[in-house]
Each structure stands twice: as C-alpha cells, then as structure tokens.
Amino acid sequence: MAIRFWVLVLATAGVGYSQGKDMSDTTKQALFIEAVQAGDEEGVKRMLGEDSSLAGATNKQGVSAILLSLYYRQSGVTPLLQAVGLDLNVYEASAVGDTGAVEALLDSDTTLLDTPAPDGFTALGLAAFFGREETARALVKRGANVNFASSNSQKVAPLHSAAAGGHTAIAELLLENGADPNLRQEAGYVALHSAAMNGNLALVELLLRNGADPSIEGPDGVTATGLASKGGHAQIVELLN
Description:
The protein is mainly α and 241 residues long. It has helices at residues 25-38, 41-50, 65-71, 78-82, 90-96, 99-108, 123-129, 133-141, 158-165, 168-176, 191-197, 201-209, 224-230, 234-240. It contains 14 helices and no strands. α8 (133-141) runs parallel beside α10 and α10 packs parallel to α12.
C-alpha cells in the first residue's frame, strides 16, 4: 500500500538533448525541461550558455524549471538556474527559501498569499514541503491559510506537506497557528499517517499532543498504528496503542 503525498504528472519531451539551429523555441524548452528533470547538469549548463532565457521555461502543466529541479531532487541543477538571475515568482521563492523575495512579492500583491500555483500548491505548502522554516514563518505571520488544501487532486494542506517532508518544526508552527491535525487529504489520509509510516517519532508525538486522532483510518482501513507496524517502527506502535 502506498500513500501518494506528492505525485506530479509531469510530461517530458522523450528525445535527446542536442540542439539544432532550426529547432523551435517550444522544442528547446521541452528539451531543457527534460534535462532539468534528469539532472543533466552539463546539458543544463550548455543550454543556458546558448540561451539563458531557458531558465524561465515551464512544462506543459505550467510548472517552472526551478520547481521541477526541486520536485525531482536535482540539487545540482537548482543553483545553475538560480545563477542566471531569473526573477523568482512567489512559489519558486517559497520553494527555495528566499524569504526576502517572498516578502517583496507579497508587498506588491497580497492576493498571492493563498493563490495556488499552476500545479495547485500554495506558497506556504511549498515552503512547508521543502523545509523552508523562515519562509513558512513569514507566510504564516502574514496570515496564510494554514488549512488551505491544494487545488489539485491531492488536496494536501501545509501540514500534510510538512509531514511528508519530515519537517517537525514547521508542523509545530502550523499547529500553533490553527492547523487541523485531523484534516484529510487525498483518499482520506491525515498527517499522522505520514509521520507514522516514515518513522518520525517526534512528529507523531507532536501531532498527538495537538489532538491528532490515531483511530482515523485511510480508505483501505489502515490506521497510523498499522502503518508504523508495517514499517517496523516499534516505538511509534507502542505510543499509538
């Protein structure tokens, strides 16, 4: 049984990275996105050297290259994109933890606070998932909705994102500011399921202290205890029983 906390359906070009003189801009962008997702650092460097504007490329779903580098855990590619000096939007800035940029963008347009990105995630959700505590604190201070579920099919709130990423300090911040520990995401799972499955004892303890209900079942009838047991997390099983 697999819990899909963050599953992105991302299209790739399905062709090689070499560029020809007559290649269309659309094809160049598709090839660049493919290189980013694959972690082809040399290919990304070469393509940026030929056309630095490619740093602003997006996939068919509107997800930017820098966000894709983070989603695909391509840590060597992200700084290559940042080095181009591209102006980040609020979602990218939140995902990389550029709190100053986030603050400036929100000063210009307060509606960005809870407006989801093209893939459905809010700035706070992205900061929570990628462990950007300072940025998350700034967003919460400005009044970001801590219970705002993503607008995509996954329906993940920031607490689900923090739990999926294993970021206990951010989860604590969210709970202190009104996050519902029993809010259900896609298929009915809650943050406690994620924490138990991943063996995050500190997060399980935090959630329980803040009212998480260990009896909540996923659609398959599995509880947090069952997930912890399956993962061999004996301490968590004992705590939940």
